[in-house]
Amino acid sequence: MKVPVAPPRRLVELEIDGRAVRVPEGSTILQACRAEGIETPTICYAENLTPVNVCRVCVVEVEGARALVPACSRAVEPGMKVRTDTERVRHSRRLVLEFLASSVDLSLAPDLHRWQEVYQAHPERFGAPMEPLAEGERDAREPGRHAPVEPGTAETVHQPVKVDNDLYVRDYARCVLCYRCVEACGDDAQGTYAIAVAGRGFDARISTEFAVPLPESACVYCGNCIGACPTGALMFKTEHDLRREGRWDEARQTVTTTICPYCGVGCNLELHVQDGEIVKVTSPADHDVTRGHLCIKGRFGFTFTRA
Length: 307
Prior knowledge:
Elements: E1 11-16, E2 19-24, H1 29-35, E3 59-62, E4 69-70, E5 81-83, H2 87-103, H3 110-118, E6 168-170, H4 180-185, E7 195-198, E8 205-208, H5 224-228, E9 234-236, H6 237-244, E10 254-259, E11 268-274, E12 277-282, H7 296-300
Parallel strand pairs: 1-5
Antiparallel strand pairs: 1-2, 3-4, 3-5, 6-9, 7-8, 10-11, 11-12
């Protein structure tokens, strides 16, 4: 049997922080930086999703460019000179992190905490974040509409925790509008298009079509949006319940890689087990079959193990 082999790609030479770098043609600046071991913060970027350029925390300086450019999507060019740690870059990244941390709950986003320390971000400069509505508190919005927000306050924090199914929970007080869930639900993975970003500016929020409840939407409960979410805005209900009870403890969890038993596709599963019970299921983003994505059976169909 003949195995198709991709043709070799021409190498492009550029300069990053004064160092000569050679990477395959078509690589992004971010890929070139990572190949050189240069840490670059990202929020909206994921290796298994199409870059959408919305968080702007990966921006770098490119000689000759008027504005800072997003490293996650800008392709390298021969002779390009890139600077990743100038004061202009650090200032921009610091402000992005401060704006986010001052408007939404990032307590379940450890990577962002680390970057805040690296860039000495002080979100309290912009005021204390608004407290999210308590779980179970009625949303004041009328169906299909949304309540006005205070000037300078993100619409996402005005939403209560949404528990409307037995599989996953939506807590948009933690949402940074990175679009990763939208991409995973759309062309990049599921092709369901059950969710999108509605509204603009401070009014922007993740919503189903016509803001209908999730069980009435096009959602097929694959959970790929959960796997893509970097802040805990989307979460397994099992994890949500354990956190609410104060029993969630990742230090006591083990992760076992296995193959999904439901069909012959061969999807890899990572079973997160605590106290002898599966508490959530993920899939490696670099796996050739799944690329981090699963169907409803693979991600949520583990309750039979309790029998």
